[in-house]
Amino acid sequence: MNKKMILFYLSILLYTIFLTPLIGWDLKVEAFVALVIIQILWIGRVFPLAFSSVLLILMLSFNFFTFEETMGYFGSGIIWLLFSTFIIASAFIKTGLASRISLKMLRMSQGSGKQLIFLSFMLMFVLSLFIPSNIGKGSLVASVLDSLVKSLKKIVNVPNLAKSLFIGVAFIASISGAFVATGASSTIYAFGIMGEITSQLTFVSWILYFCPPIVFFLILLWVLFMIYFPPESVDKTLVVRLIDEQINELGKMTVSEIKVLVIIGMTLLLWMTESLHEFSIPLIAMLGASFTVLPFSGIWDWDEAKKSIDWDMILFFAATLMVSKMLIETGTVIWIADELVGAFGSFSPYIVLVFLVISTALIRIIFVNVLGFLTIIIPIAITVGQSVTTIDPLIMAMAVFLAGVPGFLLITQSPVHLISYSYGYFTEKDLFRVGLLSMVLWVAVVFGSVFFYWSWVV
Predict the structure, then answer these.
(1) CA angle, 320 as apex, 448 and 195 as ends, to 5°?
(2) pLDDT one-digit tens code per residue, 406-422
(3) Residues whose CB is less than 8 angstroms from the CB of residue 336 and which lie 6 or more positions away in sequence, other chains included
């Protein structure tokens, strides 16, 4: 019997014991067991994520909500924000504009290996404005860097430069996704749930909260890579020439690229001025997505555009919202939060925060899908923050969110790690060694944000 079948039968056993009307458990216990079952299915990859999400819908509808209440989550604004950003991002990549911007940014390095590494980090942040997928960003940048490194290797061996570039892709893809509210599916979820506890959270304020700590860590990571993997000396004119060759292959900027650039620029402008016109971020995103399909402004027809929508991810995303709702509505989150606060009752509330952040960073090691993990940990952090009056619930949630976003130690911690590793430029030992130091720096930056930055701006 294979592992997936064992996990499946375990899920059936748990459901039979706890969620059928044989004994009549406390509702919080039933909710906790339902959480365990869906995590077994998701983490164990017993079925594709989308089908496991369908099973979750059935479980919630039979045990916790009506079917209509459960399905109501497909009408959530952040579901349609994800839907719209899939279309915009795919249009950005399809026209070649993403590759052009990537190469133009890398050319700014002027052939310097050190600058090339730093600009590859910065490139991820720029792409986060346009591509709400860590896998999309990681795949695009890795393919561009691979072409460059392969060309360089024909003349000079550059193992350290390649390690920095490709481990950087693995680390920065997820971190840069936290930079803007629409940067990744996990960030869209976090933006939605944090927005429920404060009316002051906007597209611009999100950048204000997260840009400084993330950029500061980027600089620290760059310095760490310069020490750990000092880049080889390369002929700067050669590097510039190789990049120019790739830019020339793209040809002149097309009309489609200009259209997408205007659409994305308009969308970003409307997002940043949300407080003036009061149109919601999901509504603006849908407007931008529609412009890519409309006559004159569009670059493709609907039949082509709809292929870019990852319906499995949308189904999974809706399921994560349902999990959060179940944990909140059944009182399970309050129960867990009370237990945490009670366990640390004799200590400062900041000890609770430190425990939550460090626990989040450690538990994240076993979670491949960060979105599924955040649906559990962020509601708990918010509830804990509401229980301890010393710390703003938003600060507690932001700290846990940042701690849970990146994976530093194992190639199995995200699909982007696996993509980057597949190019063969670094080993698992390389990743673990530099990742351990990076993880310590990241947690330190999170604590620094809590104690020295967010308490001032929030």
Answers:
(1) 50
(2) 989 888 888 888 889 99
(3) 380, 383
